[in-house]
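ARCHIVE CARD
Drawer: 12
Card no.: 0347
Subject: one protein chain, sequence and derived structure
Cross-reference: see card 0346
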Amino acid sequence: MKFRIDPAVVQLFGSETRAKVLGVLASSVEPKTGYEIAKALDASAPKVYAVLKRLETSGFLKAVSKGSQFKGYFMVDDDLRRLLAKKVRISVEKDWFSPEMVREREKAFRLANKMVVKVPKAGRIPKEIPNRREFIRPPEKDRVVARIAARDHAPR
């Protein structure tokens, strides 16, 4: 699946692949292998592994053993994770349906349901609006519009 990343984010992180890899790891609940990340991004595995290696050497990622011969990568810096979660959120299906993420989304929905937004009632068009007459339709036009609507919706 192709993802489009904001050009400003790409510029910030230096490459599109790096921004995408960090985006996947930021929303991941468990360490991911390079293959899992490459598969999720539809990117070439060697390119993803090169990015992971550079990020690990620079200290942004840590690697843990995942099985006998696989390395799983995860983000170390929570501030960076929060930034990426806002700007480049790419969730893998396995993470999206994980119990932890489902609980998080349900909590967010409960909070959203408690929100009350009061929409002010629309009043008359104020006299201070420039070209106020442009907002008022003359009665003749109302009759013409009603006649056209009746003609278009009449049974045939």
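Annotation on reverse: The mean pLDDT is 84. The chain has eight helices and two strands.
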